[in-house]
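**User:** Everyone, produce a chain:

**Assistant:**
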Amino acid sequence: MQFTYQRQDLNTQITYGELLKKSIEQLLTTTDRHVIVLTNQRYYDQFFQKIQQAFCHHVVDWYIARNQLYCNHLEEMTEFLQFLGKFSPTEKYVFVAFGNEGVVQLTGFLQKTVLLSGEFWVIPTSLRSFFSALSENRTICNKPYKDLLQQRNLPSYIFLDQSIVFKQSDGKLIDLQMFIQAALVGDYSFLQRLFKNFPTKKQLQTTSFIAFIKEVTQLYESYALSITNYGSIFEKAFYLTENGHVLSSYMKRFLGMLLQLFWNLELNDSSFQIDNFMSWLKRLGYPIEFPKQLLIGEYLENVLRLQGENKLVVLSKIGKIGKSQSADEKTMIKAIDHYQKIISEI
């Protein structure tokens, strides 16, 4: 299945439900394209042969980035630029992001800025990297909480291969979080359907996400930046807080989303049943507790510091974006108190 995805003046062709090799052969009908694949070590080890076969009629070079989520940092970019120094500027290239979200960001930024002529393609290794490909802002960071450089760039093509994406069963909670975040920001009825289709941990492990791909892609088409930014300041504050390392990168992102939601609910009197929502997350297996090793006061200070003069996305109600607003200490404290009260009761 194929459809076109568009963000303002940028667009990409998304292909899913088809064999990867066949889809690529239909596009690369000549052998004059030099393929450069950016990946992480774990995906190189798992899928090297599959990707080589997909580009079997072309010269393929690999660049292997670190496995960390935010591998789109300055040091990795510098090393990749050194790697590119051996390639001729007269050839035509295809830059393929085949890795995590950081790899998608790094590839999209560099394809836009290097002197080598080529296209930007994405073969997602998870639904997280698929969603990352849908947001047009490509960033290079100094640290996970500090973006340095940015370019707007959507891939020319995204190939969503189910045999790759859905082999990552260990990441289904993280993938579902991405659907939940999109639904919270853009479509309450979609959130209700997620609740009905994934009521338990068992259902989550046995039910495919593929039926929801088109719908969530449409939400990104309308609200990609708001979805991506929802919770990001709260996430980044964990990196600045002492003992923040007790949380994995994805847990920082997950709790960041939840804490912005609770802050949001303090601003708008909502009929949203947050206690039922939190009970559902706990039932699915999300570790929803705020770590005891982290000082709440220090964490809140870091949220306010990172916010600076910027305003945060606010939902007027669940599934509907309202007017952006700055966070203040009083509302933040109330949000954290509400969060901890609910955690203690479920």
User: Anything to note?
Assistant: The mean pLDDT is 94.
